[in-house]
Amino acid sequence: MTTKQTGAYYPAGTVDEFLPRIGRVVEIEDEQLAVFRTSDGTIYAADNHNPHPKGGPLAEGIVSGHYLYDPLYDWKIDLTTGQVQAPDTGQVKMYPVKVENEQVWIAV
Predict the structure, then answer these.
(1) Nearest by Cα to 97 from 105, 88, 86
(2) DSSP string spanning 20-76?
(3) CB within 8 A of 15, min separation 6: which ones?
(4) pLDDT in tens, the chain (108 residues)
(5) Number of C-beta neighbours around residue 59 at 10 A
(6) Rieske domain: which residues (predicted)?
(7) CA atoms of 108 and 106, how far apart (whole Å)
């Protein structure tokens, strides 16, 4: 039996490995995350599953400011909260991120 550490931070790569406004898939502890670096350098980690009823990946979305436009349904998602913006509704699970010495760490 394996146990997962709750809230433990795991290395996800260096800051330079995350290109601005382009998503990247990172797998940590059996979780598939979509990681984004905004044009101001902030890094966000989200569940890589679209909350739309038909689902789909989020890592292929387009980042503008602190919003992600999902690639299949053009839903606008706030990267700071994971909240899908009106007129659509939904919530994307977001993960805590910290950067130390150019290393990106994500808590799952």
Answers:
(1) 105
(2) BTB-EEEEETTEEEEEEE-TTS-EEEEESS--STT---STTSEEETTEEE-TTT--E
(3) 37, 41, 43, 99, 102, 103, 104
(4) 333 445 799 999 999 999 999 999 999 989 999 999 999 999 999 999 999 999 999 999 999 999 999 989 989 999 999 999 999 999 999 999 999 999 999 999
(5) 19
(6) 10-106
(7) 7
Q: Which CATH architecture has domain 18-107?
A: 3-layer Sandwich (2.102)
Q: What angle do CA 16, 39, 100 make, to 5 degrees?
A: 45
Tokens of 91: 């919530």
CA 12 to chain centre: 12
What are the structure tokens assigned to 38, written together?
A: 């905004």
